[in-house]
Amino acid sequence: MREMKSHRLLIVIAAGLLIAASGCAAKRIVSQWSNPDYANAPRVFKKIMVVGALELDAIRRNLEDRFVAELGAAGVEALPSYRLVADPGKDLEGIVKTAVQGAGADAVLITRLIRVEQRTDASPGYYQPYFGFGFYRWYHPGWYGGDYYTAPNFYQYPVYYSETTLFNAAKNEIVWTGTIRTIDPENAHQAIVDYVATVVSALKNNRLLPGTSPQDGL
Fold first, then answer.
1. What is the pLDDT of residues 147-171, one digit of tens each?
2. Overall domain count for the chain
3. S-S: 125 plus which of 36, 118, 143, 152, CB 3.0-4.6 Å?
4. Which of 17, 27, 60, 21 is nearest to 183 (CA)?
5. What CATH code is carried by the domain that includes residue 195?
6. Sheet with 173-183, side-by-side order of all strands
7. Among residues 207, 191, 213, 210, which one has the least CA distance to residue 47?
8. Tens of pLDDT along 68-92?
């Protein structure tokens, strides 16, 4: 009986590790597009306004500040839109356009949440016969009540799909756009750090930031 309990405990621990591993805030660009007009003679923007078109103001401000810091480290001046735009969710295009002109920005980087999916995963149940001694017990251990079964473990987690797009403000055209998948972010701050790093790396890879080449990014 002690061996059976120990075996069950190992199964529970393994299932817990599986859940923990699946709960990490994984980032991945599931799709992206770069304007071919910027491929051979890439435009290096001098000033980018960062816009987080998000409902939660704290998340928006932290996201914009992080982008400003990362873009600044890459050699591009950037400013957060929250200093000029109170709520980008209302008449986004008109309000942002006015703010961009007032700030003298030549590009806009906009991030918005596309959708949230709820996924369910399961760790399989486990059947372990507990054999006794003798031929008959080996042949059919169930007759002796010597088997046990651990039921599957089910867990749900959210998957977020967000889109970040870089616009040429003067021409009002898309320069680059990417859809990023984020799995079950448990820490908002770290999720923002990872998200911004993913986007900035893609921009570098597409030679849209100064001093970068296709080998510098993802």
1. 555 667 766 778 888 999 999 998 8
2. 1
3. 152
4. 27
5. 3.40.50.10070
6. 26-34, 173-183, 153-168, 107-123, 47-53, 77-80
7. 210
8. 999 999 999 999 998 887 776 566 6
Judge whether 132 lies within some domain.
no
Q: What residue numbers bound the domain in which 98 lies?
A: 25-119+157-205
User: How would residue 10 be classed by pLDDT, with cut points 50, 70 and 90?
Assistant: very low
CA distance 95 to 207: 29
**Within a domain: residue 15?**
no
* Cα separation values, 206 from 21, 43, 93, 166, Å: 31, 11, 25, 12
Neighbours of 73 (CB within 10 A): 10
pTM: 0.69
Give the position of tokens 């320069």: 175
Greater confidence, 7 or 70? 70
CB 10 within 8 A of CB 175: no
Residues whose CB is less than 8 angstroms from the CB of residue 197 and which lie 6 or more positions away in sequence, other chains included: 70
77 in any annotated domain: yes
In the chain, which ranges are continuous DSSP H helix? 2-22, 57-73, 92-103, 135-139, 188-205
Which amino acid is present at 110?
Answer: I
